[in-house]
C-alpha cells in the first residue's frame, strides 16, 4: 500500500502540497484521503476518486486536483465474508478477528446496507493553514439511515500511529453517490466484508518548503483519537 504525507503533518497544519488524483489512481483502486486544504474527505472505490464536501453530494475528482494525504492500494480479489448486524465496535471486532497479523497493514471494504451511519466532512481552509484538530472541531456531520453503500479504509498497526491512523479508519460512500465522508459511527444491517493484508508500506513525503522546514514530532495520541472519533459540533443534518 502507498501513503502520501504523514498524519502528524496535518495535525500541525502542514498540508500545502498534495499528490494529484491522476497519480493516486496509479497506486491502486481503493483508499481514503482528504481534499486540498482539508476541504472534505476522499473515498477511492473501484479506481474512482470521490470528493465528499459540505457543498453538495460526492463528485468524481479531476486528474489535476490534489490530495494532501491519501492511503491507497490494490484490494485484489479476496473472498467476501458476511458480517452480522452491529455497531462500529462490533464491526471493528469482526475485522480484527480476521487480521492476518496486528503488525501488518490491512485494506478493508464492506459492501452492504447500513441501519445508520454518521459521517463528517470539514470546510476547506486557506493559508495560513490551521491544525487538523482545530478544523475538525468545526466539522459538519450527517446522519443517514437505511442506506446502501460501501465502507472502505484501512486497519493500521499501532506502531505507525502519527505516521498514519493506527487501528481502523473508514470512509463511506452511498450507492447512489449522494452521501459520503469520514465514518464517525455506523450500524451495519447486513454486509459483505473483504480484506487484504500488506507487508509493504510505501511512504511518500511532501517536498514543499512548509514541510521541509517544520520539524514534526509525535508526543502523544490524544489529538489523533479526538480527530478520528469526532468532537462536539453542529447537530447532524
Write the layout of secondary structure elements.
Layout: E1 2-4, H1 7-11, E2 19-20, H2 21-26, E3 30-34, E4 41-45, E5 48-53, E6 56-60, E7 66-67, E8 69-73, E9 81-83, E10 86-87, H3 88-97, E11 105-121, H4 132-136, E12 140-156, E13 167-174, E14 180-198, E15 202-204, H5 209-213, H6 222-229
Parallel strand pairs: 1-15
Antiparallel strand pairs: 1-8, 2-7, 3-4, 3-8, 4-5, 5-6, 9-14, 10-14, 11-12, 11-14, 12-13, 13-14
Describe the structure.
By secondary structure, this protein is an alpha+beta fold. It has helices at residues 7-11, 21-26, 88-97, 132-136, 209-213, 222-229, and strands at residues 2-4, 19-20, 30-34, 41-45, 48-53, 56-60, 66-67, 69-73, 81-83, 86-87, 105-121, 140-156, 167-174, 180-198, 202-204. The strands form three sheets. It has a seven-stranded mixed β-sheet. The protein is globular, with a radius of gyration of 16 Å. It starts with a strand and ends in an 8-residue tail after the last helix.
Amino acid at each position: 500500500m502507498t501513503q502520501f504525507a504523514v498524519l502528524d503533518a496535518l495535525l500541525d497544519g502542514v498540508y500545502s502540497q498534495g499528490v494529484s488524483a491522476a497519480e493516486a489512481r496509479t497506486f491502486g483502486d481503493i483508499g481514503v484521503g482528504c481534499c486540498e486544504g482539508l476541504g472534505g474527505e476522499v473515498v477511492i472505490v473501484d479506481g474512482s476518486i470521490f470528493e465528499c464536501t459540505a457543498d453538495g453530494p460526492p463528485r468524481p475528482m479531476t486528474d489535476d486536483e490534489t490530495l494532501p494525504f491519501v492511503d491507497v492500494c490494490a484490494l485484489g480479489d479476496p473472498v467476501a465474508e458476511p458480517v452480522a448486524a452491529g455497531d462500529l465496535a462490533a464491526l471493528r471486532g469482526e475485522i480484527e478477528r480476521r487480521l492476518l497479523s496486528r503488525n501488518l497493514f490491512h485494506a478493508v471494504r464492506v459492501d452492504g446496507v447500513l441501519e445508520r451511519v454518521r459521517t463528517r466532512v470539514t470546510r476547506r481552509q486557506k493559508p495560513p493553514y490551521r491544525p487538523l484538530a482545530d478544523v475538525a472541531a468545526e466539522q459538519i456531520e450527517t446522519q443517514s439511515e437505511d442506506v446502501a453503500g460501501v465502507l472502505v479504509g484501512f486497519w493500521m498497526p499501532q506502531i505507525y500511529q502519527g505516521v498514519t491512523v493506527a487501528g481502523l479508519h473508514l470512509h463511506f460512500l452511498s450507492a447512489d453517490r449522494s452521501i459520503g465522508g469520514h465514518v464517525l459511527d455506523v450500524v451495519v444491517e447486513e454486509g459483505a466484508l473483504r480484506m487484504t493484508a500488506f507487508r509493504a508500506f510505501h511512504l511518500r513525503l511532501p517536498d514543499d518548503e512548509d514541510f521541509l522546514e517544520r520539524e514534526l514530532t509525535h508526543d502523544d495520541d490524544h489529538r489523533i483519537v479526538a480527530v478520528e472519533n469526532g468532537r462536539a459540533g453542529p447537530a447532524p443534518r
